[in-house]
From TrEMBL, chains A, B:
Belongs to the FAD-binding oxidoreductase/transferase type 4 family. PROSITE patterns: FAD_PCMH. PANTHER family: D-LACTATE DEHYDROGENASE, GLYCOLATE OXIDASE SUBUNIT GLCD. It comes from Desulfuromonas thiophila. The keyword Flavoprotein applies. This is Glycolate oxidase.
Length: 465, 465
């Protein structure tokens, strides 16, 4: 519980109607996509940078933890108020300030919804590639804080690659500008890229300068069915080795296909043990040839079916297969742990075999799909938390999945971040000296440990309420 | 002068023959492309990471400043031993450890020469785009420390965009690994991108994991002559607005053309007041059409001549014009201050006009050329330092050039870095809170201020010897 004087000060900063301590209201800001829930002591909705700065200064004065939050669509608990305190919601800062068509640069506030921004720039023939699955409601500020990815990152890179500059409120309440609107800039340390992916622990993003690309002229989508997981995985390597980097190279294993088949009317033949969805984009004149080259490359690898989309509507139809995955998994088991490990792409077959061994060992269904083109596989460990011992088994399986990814030269998170869920596993991936180096940065910049404490690697994990 | 016990310890670490205190030997490690010279107290040539770590620990114990150095090709003084101490040369760590063709990733030591690395990956059909002018002798470690650019960055991005991970010796001598060999990874703070461009002040890079691309199938080069600077500058914006992002979009002003004309046999007609060199690359089938579109776009903007290269040899001939610039400038005046300001590309015409006003005001020739495609113009202030007052005039002109770039939303350095030369001007670009944030990071990580002290923004500028 916050002292009434703190609530009063919050109300003075943002106005009475932009602070709530009502448990029912606050519940909406207690959870994210991880299905954990932590009730804060207050939720505040600032309107601008000055108010955010004032709130941060207040939190420092009063030694209250502060948890910045966008849309709360994160998959690692990065925005959760794991130790009460104040949740600071940035969704009122939702203006696209400028789309500069001459310089292919936009200036936006952190609360702008990803898809709305994409639509706005596409309207003028421009392109913002990062496309996390949550793009219909995730915010650009949250995308930057977590360094969001998505299917198109194979070709176009992740959120970080599109953030040129930021306005940031530091952990002590100063307002700083990092980077700028130019394509190049090397003056001082690169605080922009340090901030992106730091999950709100080193500052609160209050404005973003975003790099745009010309919108590709056209795209072409292929759905390719394989008779084995190995064939599909080898196809990924073969396509890249063939010097083609598709826009997306999505993968679904047999368990995923079974879920989709069960939950939808989509026609997926029984002999299909793995699916790749390959999309190429660019100059319309080239796409036909590129698509054919992909088909030629994969042909010897056990292809049992191919569908080619030539229009946006047909492409949409193929993507339905991929989009129906998340919902269809609910039929397997009610509780899903979606771990987004990433390995060098040639190691994907080995990784899938490792996961298979782990699933058998613990007798838990594990469903794999995701961004095979960059080795970023979503490993979904499906359990029923109501059954005794299942959550413990899931935990052990997760740890083995992480260990497997690390053995193959990979990482435990390609795009979801660490948040509070992966924090306990950090010592598996980062050596102690590297953690110490990071902790030194955090402690120096946030000496009172106000901003999103207990996240990433900094302290012992906390228990969900 | 270093105490003999320090020299002895250095010799114990690297071997007697890998340490020198001979002034004649040391002279070679006292300067860089800025033409400043600072004599160190010792130069040491470690063979591996363990030796580098031991040297850093020694420097901390003995409180001796340590200056990491690659090939010394920097343009801002980043590698200069501005306060004596030890120069640590990384050129013996010169191995290409691995080129992984399946995953388009290479692992290299910091002393590998940029061009040698490019040739090695091109031999297997791969591509490392960053191409600083010094690539024939610059090292990849130095490129990363300064975040080097080059003409191809318009389309392909800068060094930072290709560094996936690092091994680093921290300012206190720990060995850490940052990032990794995967295309995505969001575990912990992004120390990789923090390190790249930090000019050896936050750690010494001892290994690099580098992202590669498939080598483009073909390229086509156009040299376009304009009757005015404005026409050429407008052409840059028009090409980008036309949704073409060429591989390179290089620019030369009238003064540059005059230098080239005087110093070489190259045929450049008198009416040419500006030159653009435009290169497009990619699928051979597309290039003809892309080149034609570029020519169509620029046609109304005062084109007085066009040359198109269809073969690598013809392309090489066109690039000779650009390559002869640096040498030909010596005819204007003996001393050159090459400032690599960067502005949003649509502001290039205004920037050139500002520079023209400054040149007239101070009566100093200023020659502009560079990477117009990303707004990164090399403003060369040409003086004769032997004449009284000329260096002072140059300093004033430089400050006004920086102010002009900042007024247009630009930066004082697109790719050369800050080093010791731009450090005095930092308060013009970065607000005090941002500088304080950076200084907090440096002080926390390098409490003894051992690693490359006096660089970037940290302390008052020092005088060249």
């Amino acid at each position: 519980m916050l002292a009434p004087r703190i609530i009063r000060q919050l109300e003075e900063i943002v106005g009475k109607e932009q602070v709530t301590c009502d448990p029912t209201d606050m519940l909406c800001y207690s959870y994210d996509a991880t299905q954990q829930s932590f009730l804060p002591d207050a939720v505040v909705f600032p309107a601008d940078t000055a108010q955010i700065s004032a709130i941060v200064r207040l939190a420092n004065r009063e030694q209250v933890p502060l948890f910045p939050r966008g849309a709360g669509s994160g998959f690692s608990g990065g925005a959760l108020p794991t130790r009460g305190g104040i949740v600071l919601v940035t969704t009122r800062l939702d203006r696209i300030v400028e789309i500069d068509q001459d310089n292919l640069v936009a200036r936006v506030q952190p609360g702008v919804v990803t898809e709305q921004f994409q639509q706005a720039v596409e309207k003028v023939g421009l392109f913002y590639p990062p496309d996390p699955a949550s793009l219909k409601f995730s915010t650009l500020g949250g995308n930057a804080a977590e360094c969001a990815g998505g299917p198109r990152c194979v070709k176009y890179g992740v959120t970080k690659d599109y953030i040129l500059g930021l306005e940031v409120v530091t952990p002590q309440g100063d307002i700083i500008r990092t980077g700028g609107a130019t394509m190049k800039g090397v003056v001082g340390y690169d605080l922009t890229k340090l901030m992106v992916g730091s999950e709100g622990t080193l500052g609160i993003i209050t404005e973003l300068i975003i790099k745009l690309l010309p919108l590709p002229e056209a795209k072409k989508t292929l759905l390719i069915l394989f008779d084995s997981i190995d064939g599909a995985a080898q196809a990924v390597s073969a396509i890249i080795r063939g010097k083609i980097i598709p826009t997306t190279l999505e993968f679904m294993d047999a368990a995923t296909i079974a879920c989709v088949r069960q939950a939808t009317q989509l026609d997926l033949p029984e002999e299909a043990q793995a699916v790749l969805i390959v999309e190429v984009d660019g100059d319309a004149a080239l796409l036909e040839r590129q698509a054919q080259r992909v088909l030629d490359i994969v042909a010897p690898l056990g292809v049992v079916g191919t569908r080619v989309a030539n229009t946006p509507a047909e492409s949409e139809e193929l993507w339905k297969v991929r989009r129906s995955v998340s919902a269809s998994l609910r039929n397997v088991n009610p509780d899903k742990f979606n771990e987004d490990i990433c390995v060098p792409r040639s190691r994907v077959p080995e990784m899938i075999r490792k996961v298979d061994v782990i699933a058998r060992k613990y007798g838990i269904p594990i469903v794999n799909f995701g961004h095979a083109g960059d080795g970023n596989i979503h490993v979904n460990i499906m359990v029923d938390g109501r059954q005794e011992g299942q959550l413990d088994l899931a935990k052990q399986a997760i740890e083995e999945v992480f260990a497997g990814a690390l053995e193959l030269g990979g990482t435990m998170s390609g795009e979801h971040g660490v948040g509070n869920t992966k924090a306990p596993y950090i010592p598996m991936e980062l050596d102690p000296a590297a953690v110490a180096y990071m902790q030194t940065i955090k402690r120096a910049l946030d000496p009172n440990n106000i901003l999103n404490p207990g996240k990433i690697f900094l302290e012992a994990p906390v228990q969900a309420s």
